[in-house]
Automatic annotation (TrEMBL):
Residues 5-416 form the Vps16 N-terminal domain. This is Vacuolar protein sorting-associated protein 16 homolog. It comes from Cyclopterus lumpus. The keyword Protein transport applies. The gene is vps16. Keywords: Endosome, Lysosome, Membrane, Protein transport, Transport. It is found in: Late endosome membrane; Lysosome membrane.
Length: 834
């Protein structure tokens, strides 16, 4: 345990340690001198702009991007304007803020993404200083211009510029300033000599930090903690004031005995720690000042850059990178000299057990007597998470596993999850990956964000292995990684379309949540249309294929895919697109090659676009359908002349189609219309638009029998239909004499039972009896029964010796007709014998 605590430095009640993260892989000849440097938090990448003040076209500054371990990612000459500040967004995109207020955004690989401006007035006044900050709204940018005005953009993804009020008496840039986030509001805290102001959207307020007397002098440097909770102020007299960022309390005031302002000042605080500290850096000196008025001093040889983290400070030099942090309490309890904490005893017990020493049992008994074995296991597991050295991690986890064996009700979840998380963290901390995350940062970042960062850096195999190892659901893990990998793969220009399509299909396969259409869209954006089409062949959902094919102007293929899908809505979508994009002739020719699409389009036109339907039939020389179209169109016309004209066109088309029946039927419709109009003009009969049968019924109802007979002859109406129509009409009008004359005009083609029935419907038995004698013998029984003449019905049935007719008569007889019943029964018996 002694060697672990060798690099611990006490500061008040806390200890601080420096752990080496990497020996940097880069080769910087001049170190970090004359460089603008920015490193992203959470073990993020490092950006260097060498000699940013070079203006010569022949010798431009070089912008370089490295991983946290110094592995080169991108490098290119800076060809834009002078850069004032570099910063990173929460998604690891590089912001380059120029003197003219332009902010250029690059991705991790140096590809330009977009740019925006901090306002037109900045172009003239120039940016003097700038800062990139992170808030609940996203990544923000703050600048101070030559006119001593501050401008804020709290979220660069939803750009809204805010120009803050003027600061009284401020000339040029302030002595120092920071951005604060308080109560979901973004403010600027600045000092102008001995005076301190807070700027918000509407006001500029002078403030005075508690306990900072006039003897402290002017404030020349200030720093806010990682989560904006604490504030540090450094004065020109060498005093360091610390307190909450709301400036209502004071935590400490330390005399650093340094009159020159530090080059950098960063907070170093472990979450939940009550002993926060500030790290100050001068040439060749690093100082840690805490609230206890003590300091720790580390000599430095090279120029360094401090990067504030959630639970410490990264110290980056040209040779190596270290993490300065407060030693977590659980690590202090276990590794502190002569510690009797349960975790320390368990660790010692395991060491003795590995030596086969009986002291292991003594240590275990001591822990058990205190009933602290579960706490000891928990301490070892928690401490292992905070350790960066893998040997120390293994030692602690083995001790925890050893202690766990003597517990019956201990849940293994914490132990198992910590083992898995440490394995993941150790993998991403490798120099080749360069993500030096602590366990605390990992928990804050979440596993999902870590996978995203690995994918963004194109560490696809590692990301997939982590997803499988941690058993993340496919749609959140492997499938999502494969989707990003495939989207990147299609951008490789050194491989053929066929090779890329085959590789993507082989790797992705049927992975759930991976859309080939999404990958194809990326290929199309890169100008690889043929590759996109090949990838779309692997897409199982036609609804995803078709929109992209239309976007790629492959309308014929899109139509084929839509038809194959059997989805009518999809077919209609493609057809509508083609109609808007093509000229009419090409559109119709395209549809002719797809009968299903053509049929659906015809159905659509019948409901929505009648004129288009006519053009469609003309294009195909479909005379039969054209005739049908003219007939249908004729019924929408109000004027008879127009209707007759359309019907004549229909006749011509039917003749061309050699459809004699339809042509003749249409001609007869025209004759009927002319006849109806003539009668309407002469009699005002209101016959127009009635059918032939309805017209004849109307004529008979009006008493226009001659005209009805004319229609009967002209249109060769069947005799039976005409007799029925006239019979019903005369009976309804109760013109019994005319009815009798009509019955005698010639032999009835419908028989005379119909006359009996219509008379009885009008309850006229007298008239009905006139026709009973004319009824044929086969229907005579029915006629007698219709007029309730049971005697006559019985005679007719007996005469025909028909058993079923006799039974029908018997069913109508009542008990009072005893003689008739007996007669019919005797007749039935005789009929049966014969």
């Amino acid at each position: 345990m002694a060697f672990i605590t060798a690099n611990w430095n006490p500061l008040g009640e806390a200890f601080y340690r420096k752990s080496e993260l990497y020996e940097m892989c880069w080769n910087l000849r001049d170190g970090l001198r004359d460089c603008l440097v920015s490193a992203a938090p959470y073990g993020g990448p490092i950006a260097l702009l060498r000699e940013p003040h070079k203006r010569s076209p022949s010798s431009r500054p070089q912008l370089e991007i490295y991983s946290a371990s110094g592995v080169g990612i991108a490098s290119f000459p800076w060809k834009s304007g002078p850069v004032v500040h570099l910063g990173w967004t929460v998604s690891d995109e590089l912001l380059c803020i120029q003197e003219d207020g332009s902010v250029l955004i690059y991705d991790l690989f140096g590809s330009f993404k977009r740019h925006f401006s901090m306002g037109q007035e900045v172009v003239q006044s120039q940016v003097l200083e700038a800062k990139v900050f992170h808030s609940p709204y996203g990544t923000g940018v703050a600048i101070v211009t030559g006119s001593s005005r501050f401008t804020l953009a709290t979220n660069i993804d939803d750009l809204k510029l805010r120009r803050l009020p003027e600061v009284p008496g401020l000339q040029g840039k302030p002595s120092c300033w920071v951005v604060l986030n308080q109560e979901r509001q973004t403010k600027v805290l600045l000092s102008n000599g001995p005076e301190i102001y807070i700027l918000d959207s509407t006001s500029c307020t002078a403030v005075c930090p508690p306990g900072l007397g006039p003897q402290a002098g002017s404030i020349v440097h200030m720093s806010v903690s990682f989560r904006y909770k604490y504030l540090a102020l450094f004065t020109d007299s060498g005093h360091l004031w610390t307190g909450p960022s709301h400036l209502q309390d004071k935590m400490s005031e330390v005399d650093t005995k340094k009159s020159t302002p530090p080059k950098q000042m960063v907070w170093c605080r472990r979450p939940k720690s009550q002993q926060p500290s500030v790290v100050l850096m001068w040439d060749r000196l690093l100082m840690v000042a805490g609230v206890c008025n003590d300091t720790i001093q580390f000599p430095t040889e090279d120029q360094c850059v401090l990067v504030g983290e959630l639970d410490g400070v990264r110290i980056i030099s040209s040779a190596n990178q270290e993490l300065l942090q407060e030693v977590p309490l659980v690590c202090q309890d276990i590794f502190k000299i002569a510690s009797m904490a349960p975790g320390a005893l368990l660790l010692e017990a395991h060491r003795e057990y590995e030596k086969s020493s009986q002291k292991a049992d003594e240590y275990l008994r001591e822990i058990k007597e205190q009933s602290m074995l579960g706490e000891a296991v928990r301490q070892c597991v928690e401490a292992a998470g905070h350790e960066y050295n893998t040997d120390t991690q293994k030692s602690l986890m083995r001790a925890a596993s050893f202690g766990k064996c003597f517990l019956t009700d201990f849940s293994p979840d914490l132990f198992v999850s910590t083992c898995r998380e440490l394995r993941v963290l150790n993998a991403v901390r490798e120099s080749s990956v360069g993500l030096p995350l602590t366990h605390t940062q990992f928990k804050q970042m979440t596993l999902q964000v870590l996978i995203d960062r690995l994918v963004y850096r194109q560490f696809y195999p590692l990301a997939i292995e982590i997803c499988r190892y941690l058993k993340i659901p496919d749609y959140q893990g492997v499938s999502r990684v494969l989707k990003h990998w495939a989207s990147c793969k299609v951008q490789q220009k050194d491989l053929s379309d066929e090779a890329i399509a085959r590789t993507v299909c082989l790797k992705v396969g049927d992975s759930p949540g991976v859309s080939y259409s999404h990958i194809a869209a990326k290929a199309y954006e890169c100008g690889r249309t043929e590759l996109a089409i090949k990838l779309l062949d692997f897409e199982a959902r036609s609804g995803e294929q078709v929109p992209l094919l239309l976007k790629m102007k492959r309308s014929q293929l899109a139509l084929s895919k839509a038809v194959e899908s059997g989805d009518t809505d999809l077919v209609y979508t493609v057809v509508t697109y083609l109609k808007n994009e093509m000229n009419r002739g090409d559109f119709f020719m395209t549809l002719r090659n797809q009968p299903v699409a053509l049929s659906l389009y015809r159905q659509f036109c019948k409901l929505q676009e009648q004129e288009t339907l006519k053009d469609l039939y003309n294009q195909d020389d479909d005379h039969q359908e054209l005739g049908n179209y003219y007939v249908t169109a004729s019924y929408r016309e109000k004027r008879l002349e127009n209707r007759l004209s359309l019907l004549q066109s229909a006749v011509d088309e039917y003749n061309k189609a050699k459809n004699e029946f339809s042509a003749k039927a249409t001609e007869e419709e025209m004759r009927l219309l002319r006849f109806q109009r003539k009668l309407d003009d002469e009699k005002g009969a209101g016959l127009l638009e009635l059918s032939l049968q309805a017209t004849m019924e109307a004529l008979l109802a009006l008493g226009l029998h001659k005209q009805a007979e004319q229609l009967y002859r002209d249109f060769r109406v069947p005799d039976k239909r005409y007799w029925w129509l006239k019979l019903k009409s005369l009976a309804e009008k109760e013109e019994w004499e005319e009815l009798e004359k009509f019955s005698k005009s010639k032999k009835s083609p419908i028989g005379y039972l119909a006359f009996v029935d219509v008379c009885m419907k009008s309850n006229n038995t007298y008239e009905a009896k006139k026709y009973v004698s004319k009824v044929t013998p086969e229907q005579r029984v029915k006629a007698h029964l219709a007029i309730s003449d049971l005697e006559g019905a019985a005679d007719a049935a007996t005469e025909r010796r028909n058993e079923s007719e006799m039974a029908a008569v018997l069913s109508r007889c009542s008990t009072s007709d005893r003689l008739l019943i007996d007669r019919l029964n005797r007749a039935r018996a005789c009929a049966v014998k014969k």
